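Handout, section B. The chain below has 323 residues.
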Amino acid sequence: MDFFETIMFPFKWLVSVIMVGFHEGLSAIGMPEASGWTWTLSIIGLVLVIRAALIPVFVKQIKAQRGMQLLQPDLKKLQDKYKGKTDQLSRQAMAQEQMAMYKKHGTNPFSACLPMLIQMPFFFALFTVLAGISTARDAGEGIGAMSHQQVTQFDDSTIFGATLSASLLHGGEGNLTAVWILSIIMILAMTASQFITQKQIMAKNMSEEAMASPFMRQQKMMLYILPIVFGVGGINFPIGVLIYWTTTNLWTMGQQFFVIRRMPTPGSPAAKALAERRAAKGLPALPILGGKKEEAGDAAAAAAVAQAKGQRIQPQRKNRKKK
């Protein structure tokens, strides 16, 4: 067993345990054990378990993203301060001030990638499990918690005529036309859902300052690069892996839709829309995830709504001392 397999072994075992657990549960309620739909629902169940476990990490990711967006004006000032200074001492000083700024506000640029990084071992584990199905079947072995009988069932199972262990690049047993059609549809769904998720964040949940920041330029690049990377890589993914990744992308898209509508970033178009909806119902603006800057953003959004409606804000009367 090489180093990579040693690292991936516990993840492969956990992935197979969850899949087998869902498979046995679905079989117990009457679904056929050898059906491709039973195994497909088991893969979807795997996604639900992993993503539900990652909800606390997702909340931290939201806070970190908003912290980074609120920091953009300060980061811009820091970059202007050291603009044109290329000596080692200046670069070191800038890095130290930047790290101190991140620490003070409890955020860093890597927090946004945390959920994806945590998911990647499970993704690779599922990929190696499904890619090794045919080999394990020929060798008369199981994979992780999957027995040889379950490996054989999975290898023979199909949906719409395509086997779950087949891929666009390597084909597989069964109807190759069905494999091609289903793989292409799943790859398009996987990349489209990823693109839409990132696009709605940039279009609705970022302030004007964040949109004009260097960080935003990187985000725009990733908006197009990541779907292309996964789209090209998808030709090598077994259909079961494409089902997993498409399902997790749809989960992410739903999460982001909820967050953007209910807990938008202060100063963003979504925050102004939320303030308008609350003002229309006669409700006060709510602070979003706490913090003075966020409360100020909400107050600004509420003021913008009031101004748009033509309401005149009465000045507060100052108490005068009696003569």
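Note. Confidence is low (pLDDT under 50) at residues 288-316. Compare this with the example in section A.
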